[in-house]
Inverse folding.
């Protein structure tokens, strides 16, 4: 299976190289059919390539063709297909051309057919849909093998209660809901953090290319994968719960990709506060901002709205007063106009839930709250 990963990555990178110097308006780059013909010639010339599975190599070309089609689609946000690297992009796809490629052995065990390798056992974690026609076998950085079946799941139906919820994403609190709930991502435990720091210091003292360095890198990868698994599990459970409880879900329209760019800059124009920005970037990535919204849009299509984030953390959700001084700290919001006290993230989530239309002017000119349930106004001490 490692050979299949290497062959698929090699064929993919060859296809990327053919399109590397192509620009709109120039001669057309070879398509899937022409690339398959070139692959046949390469297999006849190189014995190591012919020893692999032709299905695996052709599916790598088909995946590349689909990636290029998504890149040219103006309605698809996919970027240009890039290079795949050994140790980071390890995987291949198989099309079930006949029935019986997957079979169940027991309640927790199944088997899947892999060309040149035969039947491979895997843990049966959930039922395999009958409409699955292809599956992808991949290996992560921790050395674990996974099999994923290509099926588009059905969307979660709306509950029909007419309720809307706002979500404010943060670092200290991963997701604050307008209902007052505070959701936090489950990360590494304090002992695991201490072990991670020890391993990172040990890695800096290891000689490059040594066996000791490889063992340390594997141990670090296992800890990082454990943290990533917990974050993905939290996102799946939180997104499913929100899609089942609310008809409308409003989130901030944040450019997470731009917010997590490095602040190092260039030698001519170096960045400022690089260490602080690096810590903020790590906190954003640990909180799973982008993954949460993406899974919500996939599970509740058409029921997720993106709201402009301007002044959501400075606006009082009770009277509508906008004042930066109302945000006393990371967790405390105390309105300077009406004295309303609330958790700062929950206050921002309520503004998001109202779509910024949190106030309205009455006939007598008095500002009254709208689009929210009456809340108890706590007077300042």
């Amino acid at each position: 299976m490692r050979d299949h990963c290497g062959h698929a990555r090699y064929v993919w990178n060859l296809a990327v190289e053919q399109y590397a110097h192509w620009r709109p308006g120039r001669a057309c780059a070879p398509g899937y059919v022409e690339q398959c013909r070139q692959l046949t010639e390469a297999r006849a010339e190189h014995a190591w390539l012919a020893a692999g599975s032709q299905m695996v190599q052709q599916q790598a070309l088909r995946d590349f063709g689909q990636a290029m089609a998504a890149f040219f689609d103006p309605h698809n946000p996919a970027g240009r297909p890039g290079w795949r690297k050994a140790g980071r992009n390890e995987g291949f796809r198989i099309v079930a051309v006949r029935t019986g490629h997957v079979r169940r052995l027991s309640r927790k065990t199944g088997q899947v057919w892999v060309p040149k390798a035969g039947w491979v056992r895997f843990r049966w974690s959930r039922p395999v849909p009958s409409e699955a026609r292809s599956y992808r076998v991949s290996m992560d950085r921790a050395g674990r093998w996974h099999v994923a079946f290509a099926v588009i799941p059905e969307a979660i139906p709306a509950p029909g209660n007419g309720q809307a919820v706002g979500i404010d994403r943060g670092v200290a609190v991963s997701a604050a809901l307008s209902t007052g709930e505070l959701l936090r991502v489950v990360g590494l435990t304090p002992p695991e953090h201490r072990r991670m720091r020890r391993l990172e210091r040990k890695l800096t003292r290891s000689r490059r290319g040594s066996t000791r360095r490889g063992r340390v890198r594997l141990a670090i990868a296992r800890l990082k994968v454990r943290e990533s698994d917990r974050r993905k599990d939290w996102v799946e459970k939180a997104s499913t719960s929100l899609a089942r409880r609310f008809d409308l879900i409003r989130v901030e329209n944040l450019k997470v990709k731009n917010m997590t760019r490095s602040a190092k800059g260039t030698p001519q124009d170096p960045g400022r506060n690089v260490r602080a920005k690096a810590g903020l970037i790590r906190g954003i990535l640990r909180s799973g901002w982008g993954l949460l919204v993406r899974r919500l849009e996939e599970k509740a299509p058409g029921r997720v709205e993106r709201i402009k984030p301007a002044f959501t953390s400075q606006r009082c959700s009770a009277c509508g007063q906008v004042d930066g001084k109302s945000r006393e700290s990371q967790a405390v919001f105390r309105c300077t106009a009406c004295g309303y006290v609330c958790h700062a993230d929950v206050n921002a989530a309520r503004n998001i839930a109202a779509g910024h239309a949190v106030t309205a002017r009455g006939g007598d000119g008095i500002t009254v709250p709208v689009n929210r349930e009456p809340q108890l106004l706590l007077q300042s001490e």
